[in-house]
Every structure is written in C-alpha cells, then in structure tokens.
Write a structure and sequence with these properties.
The structure holds 2 protein chains of 2 kinds.
Chain A: E1 5-7, E2 10-13, E3 19-24, E4 31-37, E5 44-50, E6 53-57, E7 65-68, E8 75-79, E9 88-95, E10 106-107, E11 111-115
Parallel strand pairs in A: 2-11
Antiparallel strand pairs in A: 1-3, 3-8, 4-5, 4-9, 5-6, 7-8, 9-10, 9-11
Chain B: E1 3-7, E2 10-14, E3 19-26, E4 33-38, E5 45-50, E6 56-59, E7 62-66, E8 70-75, E9 84-92, E10 96-99, E11 103-108
Parallel strand pairs in B: 2-11
Antiparallel strand pairs in B: 1-3, 3-8, 4-5, 4-9, 6-7, 7-8, 9-10, 9-11
Chain lengths: ~120, ~110
Amino acid sequence: DTGVSQNPRHKITKRGQNVTFRCDPISEHNRLYWYRQTLGQGPEFLTYFQNEAQLEKSRLLSDRFSAERPKGSFSTLEIQRTEQGDSAMYLCASSLGQGPSGNTIYFGEGSWLTVV
Amino acid sequence: EDQVTQSPEALRLQEGESSSLNCSYTVSGLRGLFWYRQDPGKGPEFLFTLYSAGEEKEKERLKATLTKKESFLHITAPKPEDSATYLCAVVLGDYKLSFGAGTTVTVRA
C-alpha cells in the first residue's frame, strides 16, 4: 500500500523562476488537498479537490499559484514568479471522503521549496 | 473565530517520564479532531481522530482524549523514539483542517 507521493522532495530556485510540484494521492482517494508549512508553524490549507474539481482555494493562494488535478488522479501545484516568501514546505494530502475512516487525511512527505 | 492552540510549545522529558500535551480549540460544531506526529523534514503522520467528548483512543504509549473544549495527548513512559512534533487539528466544514503550531517533544535516554 503506497502512501501519498510527492516530488521533487527539495527544490532550490532563483527568485522569479517558476516551479511545479507533483502529488500522487493514495489510489482511490477522491479528495486531494494542498497545504503549506513554514518552520515552527502548523500546516495551512491552500486548496481542495474532489475528483478533478477544485472546490476551494484559500486566500493564501495568490494569482501566482495554480493547482490542477486532471482526470481526478495526480495533482500539480505551480508557483509562477517565485518570491522569497514562498519558501516553505508544500504538503499534499488525500482522503477517501466516505465510509468509517473516510475522513482520515493522509499526508505526503512534502516538497521543500527554497527561493534564493 | 475558529482557533486551535497547543501547549506547551516544547517539552523535554526523561525516558520513562510520562506527560501530557494540550490542544484547546474554539470551533462551533466540532466535526473531528486529529492528532498527527511529525518528524523533522517529513510530512505529518496520522495518529488519531476523535469525534465526540469523552472519546479516547490509544496507540502504543500514546492516548488521546477529548472534551468539549480541549484534547489531551498523554505519553506514557516515553522512549527516545517518541521525540517528534505533535500536531493537533480540527476539521472545519466537511474537509478542511485547521492546525495548531504543535508541541515539540524531546525524550532523553
């Protein structure tokens, strides 16, 4: 049973460059989430997909951020024109959304972004 | 405003010294409270979900309890491998988690 997979695990980029992160959720999980976490803080919600539909975007997700989930499988999070304030760990999570344990949300190992 | 506060921020324990972590929350209509463990540089690892006051769950040396205003994570006779940051989160609406800042536990041999 594979968990939530994220890549790349680490990315160092220059300010102004674009970066893309990929997330492969647990198979058959129809709900997918992106969170962002900075040092010393808990994860903060960014966006939520149910199947391929993006149903909610946080105010934290500026216009430079875009997330997709084509065909309701893997998801990508793209950050355009990166800024130093974007440096953080980007976490993907998934859940089944139904059944006794459907609300359990499982996280991936995260993708660290450093903008220099 | 929905809020989750964890205390203490850091906890240093001697191996075998039991203790408790606190997670207090203000949310209307709690729909679930999650506990996660997070190791440095890794993603949160699911531990427990609690849904109603009075509910308790256990896993090895960890026991989570829930009241109407707070949850406790009890660590009994901790070992060095229990060192981690423990995160508490409440469910907002149907799916969104609102996290506290976490409690970093260090267990010395």
